[in-house]
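call fold(seq) -> tokens
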Amino acid sequence: MFDVSTWELLIVGLIALIVVGPERLPRVVRTLGLWASMVRASCIDLNRQIQREALAGEVQQLRQGLEQASHDTERSILDTVDIDRDYRQPRAIATPTTKTAILDDAPTPNGVEMRQEAFSNGSTCRTPILTRVTPGRGTANGVTYTSEGIVALISDRAATLLTLVDDFTRGTIIAMAPGLEASQAPQGWTVIDAETASIEGWLGDFRLESVMTETKAPRSVTADIIIDLSTRPVLERSVFPAGYLHADASVMPSDLAAQAGELVGTFEKPRYFTYTPEICAHEIAGQTGCTRCLDVCGADAIRSEGALIRVEPHLCQGCSACTLACPTGALSVARPRRLDLMDRMNTLIDGLETLPSTLHVVAEGTHTDHDVGATIGSAAPLEVPVIAAFGEELWLAALARGVHRVVLWPEAGLPADTRRLLDKRLAEVACITEAMGQGRDAISLGGDRRKDVPDITTFQSVSREPLAVSHDSRKRELLNAALRRWQESLPGSHETLELPVGSPIGGISVDPEACVMCSVCARSCPTASIRYGENEQTAWLELAEANCIQCGLCERLCPEDAITLQPRLMSTEQRYRWHSLNEAPLATCDACGKPHMPEPLLDSMIGKLAATTGAADIERQFRRCPACRHGQ
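ret:
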């Protein structure tokens, strides 16, 4: 580093040996080495800091130049903007011309059979028949459970556990109930006089937290299988995890004992979901946005983890309520994918000689009333794994293909959370279909007989061509494509339709008196529906409603409370254009005269600091642009 040759170092060393002496030389050398290392580290840190500051300055200048160029180009060239976020060349979904079996590709991933199976509490879901596998031989995409057969018998009454004495005479048994005594239980049982407070986990990995009856001390227990004989299940969920068995009036305790005996070994089920975090709108800048998936998961499998969410695959039972709730498609069904279901629908429609007036979407294993739809023309059945996997984007895709009515046949015992969400979605779509002249029952639930069955002779014709979407289009792109074609073919498309609160379709309104043009809303919008721009004189805020999911982040983050959500469906002319929310003049620098900040923002900042010590000096600095403020 200092350009010293080897001979020069040797001469310096000899001189040091003579001057310092052989006894002190090693200590002096170590001290000099330590100093040299510290100097070298300081030089490196200083050099890195200089490079970072230089690079940051260059990046900032480059970013400002690109942003200004982008705004100028957009304002001068783009009068109408396609709001769909995927600008790649679209393609039409392939639809075979020959009629094929629609249900041949029912999901059997990794050889795991799917069927409808009732939970002990009466709810159903796409519950897997767990496949027994050899340890270490599971598939890469499967979810594995390993159980050694340790059974925890729990109840809120000791007497109920004693009814299982004859059923559990072997193996490792943990019995837990208030007032339970060891003398009452068979030899070999582990008896705990406690009340179960909480349960976490799944088959092979349950963790029970309890409170001892006498001492009130906490007690933790682990088990592979849980048999809950409590009056009310400890797990208050509509979908129980694998390995948790609860007895009620319809299930005998002896039946649960037989089921528990089959849950010993290594098992596997599919991973039902896919998660795309880059389009998740759960949290921005520490503020919670969309929580729709967390609100509807009956299995309690979804957790918030900062800006993102996490789905526990061992708890997920494939109900698909989260995919129906998710407005962006960040959560979706792994198999069959959304576009696979649309392919099935297209194959079914194209395989028929005449366009079906009614499409019956039937969950696997569901019994249908074949008389429904017989009075309003031809009908076609489409089977899907679970009804929630066929969401509103596919309902509207069916209408966009010319189908006049879609009838949904949910699985028996649909979880309550999923049913409420489905009813909410149907109410939102009913507002749209009614305003478009299709009637409120253009999308309806099977078995819900109504007198106001739509008259198909009054319907407008819609193109039978498949929607042109890219092969990797997400939920929002498909929803927008279906809405756009369907709206453009109907007479009511020029009107703005008000939708129920909570709808994922809509826009915002901005109070121009309260808005200071701080652009927090534009910078926090997870779907880029709001944008902020400037020219030489004016700053503006614009909105494109096609991608607004009504997450409410802009409303919550606005420091002036100037934003209000507006659930609505605007016309195609308005929905796919950038339209103005607010405009304001730019304040000019007192020193150089260049515009640098919206005037309302500058006035707001000065007003809030008026009572601060040195307010005059602060105001003088604020009225200058950053370059003049820092003496550049």
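The first helix runs from residue 6 to 20.
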